[in-house]
Task: structure prediction
Amino acid sequence: MKKHPLIINPSLLSADFLHLEKDLKETVGAGVEMLHADVMDGVYVPNISFGFDIIGKIASICSVPVDVHMMTVAPWDYLDVLKEKGAYSVTIHSDVGDVCRRRDTLARIRTLGMRAAVALKPAFPAEAVSDVIDLCDMVLVMTVEPGFGGQKFKGDMLPKIRDVKRIAERAGTTVSVQVDGGVNVENIGLCSETGADNFVVGTAFFGAENKKERYEDLREAAVCGASRSARG
Ligand code: DX5
Ligand code: ZN
Result:
């Protein structure tokens, strides 16, 4: 089975928007492998974040890929602009549109040269991605209700990581598994041990005094979890 590299992916929702350029330089300088941008439309979730121009500006000064998490009711309306603004990957939720719409959207994301992903809110089982798994590069297992940073990690979502991997395997494919919500140094090892490889970290990354140290602690804990799982 294809092995996915471990990726520490800070969530920009928790960045310091009054000093964004400085914060981004420190973040990329800390060694992170990706940046996570949450787009919220105030309808799919009860919050509004930032839009595509901001994402474009961020992508233009950062040397790491920008991963866009679309918490919007109509993500298909924004695929061209996301490509134009430099998005590397686009995640849509498993409960937007019908299955045909989701399949078309994921296929279009790939045609545009971006990586395609589907996110599962806590209420949805892994099976909710089975009808689109062949079009996914990644599945996002939400470990909080989407909409806000700073919430408590839901440990009972962890078995879903294994379920997603099993569904992918059954479909003859392999996907990266991302976790998002309340991830920190204490629980990241458990996430990687269970099979996740892409770790979105908002509060626990941007709240750190020293971002480089925090990145290294997160990475070390993730690597330890992955090697525990490799040893069985
Ligand atoms: C929540 C967002 C997350 C959020 C994570 O809806 O999808 O990306 O920013 O932040 P923390 O790590 O603080 O839970
Ligand atoms: Zn997110």
Remarks:
- The pocket of zinc ion (ligand 2) is lined by residues 11, 36, 38, 69, 180, 200 (CB under 6 Å).
- The chain has eight helices and eight strands.
- The longest helix spans residues 211-231.
- Residues 7-231 form a domain with the TIM Barrel fold (CATH 3.20.20.70).
